[in-house]
Write a structure and sequence with these properties.
Blueprint: E1 2-8, E2 12-19, E3 24-31, H1 38-55, E4 63-70, E5 73-75, E6 78-82, E7 87-90, H2 92-100, E8 105-109, H3 110-121, E9 130-135, E10 139-145, E11 148-149, H4 181-184, H5 186-199, H6 205-212, H7 219-225, H8 229-253, E12 257-261, H9 269-282, E13 293-296, H10 302-309
Parallel strand pairs: 1-4, 4-8, 9-12, 12-13
Antiparallel strand pairs: 1-2, 2-3, 5-6, 6-7, 9-10, 10-11
Helix pairs in contact: 1-2, 3-10, 5-8, 7-8, 8-9
């Protein structure tokens, strides 16, 4: 059995053919090239899907289902809203079927697809109670309970990045103040690093940023490794913010695995080790024999594609 998984992003549209072992056997992509009309974007979704099928040595007759992972709010067959794509109530399933034929089509938020991919084909190894968090431009998240995605009554659930950890805190892009995303995203870490650099012109972070050509999510971590006190302070504060949200998720869902992805996770155990210490110390279930495992995501950018390809298993 073969399925198609599609990852619709602000930069690229990627389609892949996935087999029943959750393995990608062929892939194709094209730039999203925004701004464009939804019709143009879905024309390219069909184009890369067909290219992937040809690369796999198959035909559309061999495809049992198609899954699309997209930014924004998804409600059944409709993409209700996706700001960065200019989508407003787009009939995604209908538009894909018009271009690729009467194959079953499933649509889901991209963070949920990434969670599904990691749970069944990545670090989750098939576990049915799983939470995935991505520390990127924002804080993305996906929740799986008893093998099913948790999306809420309106399919807009699992937005863990927009839970508040600091009342009346830093403004968030969603309009609230003090959201976890405003403190734990890679964007937040960069802003925290810049503020510390401005306050401490003697920090080695200035030299490191100049060498790289910009302030990045690595700047404070690199400074910490060089024993720069300001870098150490930035990293310590950032890890506490991330841990606060992770502990909340553990206390609410008690998943078997809590998976962390995103570029910041390239720090590996430098990030994960102190996060585990904080979560272990602050979780409510401190005396339970079975505890949540905090793990790094394994699939990278393929998580969303594989998750989209296996949406048929949870829909």
């Amino acid at each position: 059995m073969y399925t198609i998984g599609i990852d619709l992003g602000g930069t690229n549209i990627v389609a892949a053919v996935v087999n029943e072992k959750y393995e990608i056997i062929a892939k194709a992509k094209t730039p999203t090239a925004m701004p464009r009309t939804p019709e143009e974007i879905f024309d390219d979704i069909a184009k890369v899907s067909k290219q992937a099928v040809v690369e796999a040595g198959l035909s559309l007759d061999d495809i049992s289902s198609i899954g699309l992972g997209t930014p924004g709010t998804v409600n059944n067959e409709i993409i209700e809203y996706a700001n960065n794509l200019g989508f407003d109530h787009i009939p995604a399933v209908k538009m894909i079927k018009e271009r690729l034929g009467d194959i079953p089509v499933y649509v889901e938020n991209d963070a949920n697809c990434a969670a599904l991919g990691e749970a069944f084909a990545g670090c989750g190894n098939g576990c049915k109670n799983f939470v995935a968090v991505t520390l990127g431009t924002g804080v993305g998240s996906g929740i799986i309970v008893d093998g099913k995605l948790v999306t809420g009554v309106n399919s807009a659930g699992a937005e863990c990045g927009h839970t508040v950890i600091v009342v009346d805190g830093a403004p968030c892009t969603c309009g609230r103040k003090g959201c976890w995303e405003a403190y734990a995203s890679a964007t937040a870490l960069i802003n925290q690093t810049k503020a510390a650099m401005e306050a401490h012109p003697d920090s080695i972070m200035h030299e490191l940023a100049a060498e790289e050509g910009k302030v990045s999510g690595r700047t404070a971590f690199d400074a910490m490794r060089k024993k720069d006190a300001v870098g150490v302070a930035v990293v310590d504060a950032y890890i506490k913010y991330v841990a606060a949200g992770l502990t909340n998720l553990v206390n609410i869902f008690q998943p078997e695995i809590l998976c962390i992805g995103g570029g910041i996770c390239n720090e590996g155990e430098t990030l994960l080790r102190p996060l585990r210490r904080y979560v272990e110390a602050e979780r409510y279930s401190i005396y339970s024999k079975v505890q949540t495992k905090l793990m790094k995501a394994e699939l990278g950018n393929d998580a969303g594609i594989i998750g989209a390809a296996i949406l048929y298993t949870v829909k």
